[in-house]
Design a protein that fits this description.
Rossmann fold, seven-stranded mixed sheet, 11 helices
Amino acid sequence: MAVFCFGPLPQERARVRVSDVKPKYAVALLLQILLESPERAQPFCPVFGICGGCQVQHLAYSAQLRWKRDVVRNALERIGGLTGVDVAETIGMSEPRAYRNKMSLVVNHRVKPPALGFYRQRSHDVVAIDACPIVTPPLDAALSRLAALRDDATIGAVLDDARHIVARSAAASGDLVMTVTTVRPSNNTQATAPMLMREIPRLAGVSNSFDLTSENVILGRRHKQLAGEAEIEETVGGLRYRVSAASFFQVNVEMVGRIFAFLEPSLSPAGRVVDLYCGIGTFSLFFAKHGWSVYGVEENLHAFAEAKANAQRNGLQARFEAGRVERLVDAPGLRSALHDAGAVFLDPPRKGADEVTLGAIATARVPLLWYLSCDPATLARDSKYLVANGYRPTTVQPFDMFPQTGHVETLVRFEYCRGE
């Protein structure tokens, strides 16, 4: 039986106490490290091990990169049944801290005045924080200022209404935008928005997110702009993107640039590409910039509108369609686009794609497929289906999109080979 315990590193021995036993695994708490790894590092965050945001700060960064490569390889072999696949060394960051351009703070109403923080590991308890070394400096400054102002009656009234505070910064400008999530439209937040603009450095805009679909959602279905700008501009690879706090945009701009650079040698000659789950057009515009004819599909209507606006902002041509990918693959527009495509770029959510979508790609016999995944397990599952339906993985490249965490981004290049 597998025993899951936070704290011990690969090749370490530890004494643990089993705290919970499930039918197929157990959960344990660390009591003592008996044999320490030479790759153990001193965590740089005072709440590491309590806050659930990071999982591997205690592992040297070079070892993190090797471990993530192994995670991808093991998933492809164990779940995907793929043996002999060459997984490249993980492409890491020049500085694996202060990279995250979006933070979603939880408002803890169990204390008065309410405090800001992140969820504790495996819990909905909130760990109060007033700084975070993982987020960008503008976001860290905003967090520190909000924490300092929580005793102010005006700010306290906003926190009384709020469930979450979500903020995003832009590396290109240093500006940030913020949205306060509440159950219903918040008069307190509207009245206080000008004060927030004055008090928080580089804050370019404040909005109110509301109309929640469930108790646990971070953003509501509706947004009201209260002060300043709704969006800020980010630049990656010479492309300009307008993004909001709610945008479907990667949290690590440096690593997006590394993915662009990795893909670039493969983009000549240009052809037709279908970009599924295209978000605000991050990769659609990258392909269009290199002369490709782009057909992008995105379910979220806000992201769909941003994708079209970003194409116009960059003077690029791209066709975008709104809707769920698995429902549109049988519609004439997307079905025709797949049959005409020389490539598909697939960047699904963590749950991965589905057999309807993958089956449509295989039926169309699209010659080339780039699959960008944030979850090795679902990537391996989908890879198994693709291989069974005529595709062969030719490149597996992990990227460290999320340093200090257990997550890894992986780009796999598949080629259609049935009939060879």
